[in-house]
């Protein structure tokens, strides 16, 4: 099975977290807007997704990830359960490229 996603969009929020084991996490919220053809009709596409960047390999880019920055993120999707019990998909980054 394959689980790989590439998504481009605009950073709308950023926050820094440290796990109990001492791993640095940067959580960014990315907003994506585009148009795609589906069944030969042009469709507006819109989504907002949280992206998690974990570990020191992202240290060189995390300070540049501010609201309004264009990014392209590659990674894998995983289910995350919030404190309220709600499930959501999050994108765990394997590569982040700044586009602005």
From TrEMBL:
Any matching Pfam family: SSB_1
Domain of life according to the entry: Bacteria
Gene3D superfamilies found in the cross-reference section: Nucleic acid-binding proteins
Keywords for this protein: DNA replication, DNA-binding, Primosome
Keyword DNA-binding: yes
InterPro entries with a match to the protein in the record: NA-bd_OB-fold, Primosome_PriB/ssb, Prisomal_replication_PriB
SUPFAM superfamilies cross-referenced by the UniProt entry: Nucleic acid-binding proteins (SSF50249)
Family the UniProt entry places it in: Belongs to the PriB family.
HAMAP family hit by this protein: PriB
Function: Involved in the restart of stalled replication forks, which reloads the replicative helicase on sites other than the origin of replication; the PriA-PriB pathway is the major replication restart pathway. During primosome assembly it facilitates complex formation between PriA and DnaT on DNA; stabilizes PriA on DNA. Stimulates the DNA unwinding activity of PriA helicase.
Assembly information from the UniProt record: Homodimer. Interacts with PriA and DnaT. Component of the replication restart primosome. Primosome assembly occurs via a 'hand-off' mechanism. PriA binds to replication forks, subsequently PriB then DnaT bind; DnaT then displaces ssDNA to generate the helicase loading substrate.
Protein name listed in UniProt: Replication restart protein PriB
Source species of the chain: Shewanella inventionis
Lineage: Bacteria, Pseudomonadati, Pseudomonadota, Gammaproteobacteria, Alteromonadales
